[in-house]
Amino acid sequence: MQHIRPTLVLFQRTSISLLIGMALASTAQAQSLIEIYDMAKGYDAAYQSAKSQFQANLAKADQGLANLLPTANLSSGATRSSLESTVNTTPTTPTTNRAYTTQTAGVNLTQPLYRPANLANYRQSQKALDSAQAALIQAEQDLIVRSSQAYFDVLGSQDSLTFVKAQKTAVAEQLSSAKRNFEVGTATITDTREAQARYDLVVAQEIAADNDLRVKKLALELLVGRSGIAPFNIQKQSILPPVPEGSMDLWVSNSEQLHPSIVQARTNLDVAKLETEKAQAGHKPTVDFTMGYNLQKNINGTAVNTFSSQALIASAGISANLPLFAGFATQNRIRETIALEEKARTDLEAVQRQVAQATRTAYLGLQSGLGQVKALEAAESSSQAALDANQLGYKVGVRINIDVLNSQSQLYQTKRDLAKARYDVLVGQLKLRQANGSLKEADLLKVNSLLQN
User: Fold this and answer.
1) φ, ψ of residue 22 in degrees (nearest 5)
2) How many domains, the chain?
3) Helices (H), 184-241
């Protein structure tokens, strides 16, 4: 029994050395959360796709403007004609054959004056640009959360492996103690077998934890396109931020104006309304201003004479067109667009409900996570006290080996749960803002400030 105290001191020193070694190893070439996000921003395929789509919509918006601007065309052509003519004066009147060439060239300009369909099409292109911008914002917010989740998943797996190794060391010391006590006759073989079984279990947990860490690192490296990524650890004395100010209902209310999905759905409704305007324009007249300057040159005459001639024609005018009947196509198109407009309105309501539900879920999840952290901090202190009491009881003979082993398992499981809960709270802060639609890179900076540098 006198060997227990030195083994406990050795365990404490070994655990501290192990934790320090893990921390030094992780910060040798460590990257901050902001650095990971910046690398992901330049590599992630989903974000790059949204960025390209936004650039495409920028160009498409400029195309919509083209329908309101004048169009100018330069035209030219040449025609070779063969004429056969007969003057029926007598039965024997000869037939005359001759050929002539007509050459034309000109510049013509058209400026729409009243084309309601073109105006609606231009307004649609601007709405599409708003939708693409909202999609890009949503992609940025999604990348922030994915980067943070992958970052803290690695830290959580590192902590889990560290605690498993520390538990393995403690169980190994307890196994050695049980063997020594059995040899001197102060303990039964049951203590040794229980400690051996627990040691074998911890070895299996260590293998699983090591594999989980490898998988989480691969996921993070795949996100940023680089190998050898090592995240910074959280500062030991860092205080988790509380739930952001404002009630849950206020966060839900703000989401109706901020969330990119709602902005997109609202834009889709506006586009659908404009599509109805375009369909209704099928009944309306169109008015254009036209201007032209054309040259016509007749070589070897025309169909009515044999003299070469040349004419310059300058023209300007206004042309109007009023549709009368199009086989009921316009009426049916209006019916179609009205139905699609109602669909867009229903889609908007569905998105608003989904965002409200996601915001409430994220808000409650963050509250619960902070409560869990406090409870687990208390549980960690209690578990440590219970382990100390069981070790002392084992020393004086009022506790058995399995009591110490169970206390060790409970303590290290609590430590793992606490570390994971802390990471979940940090990610939960970002997820709440993502659910609300207000997540920005500045929010990531606040989380990054809690990391070692």
Assistant:
1) -65, -40
2) 2
3) 189-224
Residues 264 and 252 in one domain: yes
Q: Are residues 259 and 171 in the same domain?
A: yes
Q: What are phi and psi of 392, to 5 degrees?
A: -65, -40
CB 432 within 8 A of CB 258: no
Tens digits of pLDDT across the chain (453 residues): 333 333 333 334 334 444 444 444 444 468 899 999 999 999 999 999 999 989 998 888 888 888 899 999 999 999 988 877 766 655 555 667 778 888 999 999 999 999 999 999 999 998 988 898 999 999 999 999 999 999 999 999 999 999 999 999 988 988 888 888 788 877 678 888 988 998 999 999 999 999 999 999 999 999 999 998 899 998 877 889 898 888 999 999 999 888 999 999 999 999 999 999 999 998 999 999 999 999 989 887 777 777 888 889 999 999 999 999 888 888 999 999 999 999 999 999 999 999 999 999 999 999 999 999 999 999 999 999 999 999 898 888 778 888 888 999 999 999 999 999 999 999 999 999 999 999 999 999 999 999 886
What pLDDT, on the 0 to 100 scale, is given for residue 67?
87
> What is the rounded distance in angstroms from the CA atom of residue 360 to the CA atom of residue 114?
49
251 and 135 fall within a common domain: yes
Residue 79, CA distances (Å) to 82, 99, 228, 311 in order = 10, 11, 73, 16
Give residue 44's domain range: 4-69+115-284+323-448
Answer yes or no: is 44 within a domain.
yes
Q: In a 3-state reduction of DSSP, which class is residue 103?
A: strand
Residues 212 and 306 in one domain: no
Indicate whether 90 belongs to any domain: no
pLDDT tens digits along 138-190: 999 999 999 999 999 999 999 999 999 999 998 898 888 888 878 887 767 88
What would the two tokens of residue 424 be?
């979940």
The domain boundary, picked from 322, 345, 375, lies at 322
**Same structural domain, 78 and 209:** no
Where on the phi/psi map is residue 225: left (φ > 0), alpha (ψ -120 to 50), or beta?
left
Could you give the CA distance from residue 330 to residue 322 in angstroms, rounded to a whole number? 13
Do 307 and 223 share a domain, yes or no?
no
pTM of whole model > 0.85? no
Nearest-10 Cα torsion for 62, 123, 51, 431: 160
Task: Output the domain CATH number for residue 361.
Answer: 1.20.1600.10
Q: How far is CA 16 from CA 10, 12, 154, 163, in A?
A: 10, 6, 21, 11
Residue 226 β-bridge partners: none
12/106 same-domain check: no
CA dist 177 and 168 (Å) reads 14
